[in-house]
Amino acid sequence: MLKLSKLEVAYDGSTVIRDVSLTVEPGKVVCLMGRNGVGKSTIMKTIMGVLQPVNGTVSYSDEEVTKKNASYRARKGIGYVPQGREIFPQLTIYENLLLGLEARSNSEEKINEKIYEYFPVLKEMKDRRGGDLSGGQQQQLAIARALVAEPSCLLLDEPTEGIQPNIVSDIQEVIKDIKRSQVNTSILLVEQSFDFAKSVADYFYVMDKGRIVYEGEDLMEEKVSQYLSV
What we know:
Pfam families: ABC_tran. With 230 residues, the protein is of the alpha/beta class. Helix content is 35%, strand content 26%.
């Protein structure tokens, strides 16, 4: 279980996350929503250990990891697909995927064939450089690289942003399959698409100005639309 408790995060002395508490239960897909600039990506970076909170705690799998670095958290089972993908453009698809093995807790150095079932194009183009891929293909590669490590909790920061509809559909099916077949794997998804969020998530948090302003199992448009509109 991933749990944030009374989290406060600041940039250059300015507080951007205020008193945020959030829970992701094993096997659940939780969606974090809100306009651009309200702090969603900051929360994801704090969970991963890229940023350190001023106050509050981050706990995972019955251990407080607030002071642990990103590498430790990755080996603990947290996978992270950042906004902007951050693949290695000069490396091949296959080399990018191999890097995902570094976060695996066991010593087995083999890419699960399930990854290629999710994204067949990555096998077909495995010798092509990451920088030569389309935006949608790069997003597939970023997700696949995180999944190679077989995480027990996957953080997806706006995986559908700027992606063509057919690849959005592929990502949607991957999330649904993980939810269906990997019963102990949880996903925290940052998303702005109301329809996409409703199609995959079990629980919802909505942010505004660095705070959680709504949470629940049902995403009721009339209650949250004011926080999602541009």
